[in-house]
Design a protein that fits this description.
The chain is an alpha/beta fold and 212 residues long. It has six helices and seven strands, in the order βαββαβαβαββαα. Helices cover 28% and strands 14% of the residues. β4, α3 and β5 form a beta-alpha-beta unit.
Length: 212
């Protein structure tokens, strides 16, 4: 399976820990130095799967985390204020559409609430880390093909009303401004990565029903 647009290795390693042949791919190198990371454009890799399956056999599953800088609802107001930014959102949406056309049996695309929902289609599911045992609030949209909805594994007390460890008193993200803030915020929470590997890995192996 392929984890697209991931440098942390968190989702990749969750699948590998459960015996899956998982690879990550990103323009940046892997943070953990893993040999199971392909540094480059994921669309180039997927094109190689189409044209030369002996070099890269087609993947059975892809979990993709397209960059949300120009897609997240929190930043779309800049499209009306900064020349050229709307075009960057359009290019980001085209990238998502290409991922959705990937030559894989099943895929999941993860992103915050934003432009994908309005320009392409509504997500199949919206989850939060606190539904999977991590004390954090972060609305995460999932678009799915050939995969079941993720089932919450450890819902923490307080539900949506609780203020989580990653939030300030006003509900904003607690991480201070920094050059790598975008990267830190994009890392998949451990509970969600484990649920993906357990539930989607089982579906991939045919031990559970897989939606058409």
């Amino acid at each position: 399976m392929l984890v697209a647009c991931e440098t942390s290795g968190r989702v990749r390693e969750a699948f590998r820990a459960r015996g899956h042949d998982a690879w990550s791919c990103d323009l940046l190198p892997a943070d953990d130095g893993s040999p199971f990371h392909w540094k480059g454009d994921v669309l180039t890799l997927l094109d190689q799967c189409r044209s030369d399956p002996e070099f890269w056999p087609p993947f059975d599953l892809m979990v993709a985390h397209p960059p949300c800088t120009y897609l997240a609802a929190s930043g779309l107001h800049w499209n009306r204020r900064r020349p050229g930014r709307a075009a960057q959102t359009a290019a980001a949406l085209d990238f998502v559409r290409e991922l959705m056309r990937a030559p894989v049996r099943a895929w999941a695309i993860e992103n915050p609430v934003g432009a994908i929902s309005t320009a392409i289609c509504k997500p199949d599911q919206i989850i939060h880390p606190w539904q999977f045992g991590d004390d954090a609030s972060k609305a995460t949209c999932l678009w799915l093909k050939g995969l079941p909805l993720l089932r919450p594994t450890n819902v923490l007390p307080g539900g949506r009303k609780a203020r989580r460890a990653n939030q300030t008193a006003s509900g904003q993200n607690r991480l201070p401004p920094s050059p790598d803030r975008w990267k830190l915020r994009s890392v998949t929470y451990p509970g969600i990565a484990a649920a993906m590997a357990d539930q989607w890995g089982a579906a991939l192996a045919g031990r559970e029903g897989v939606a058409a």
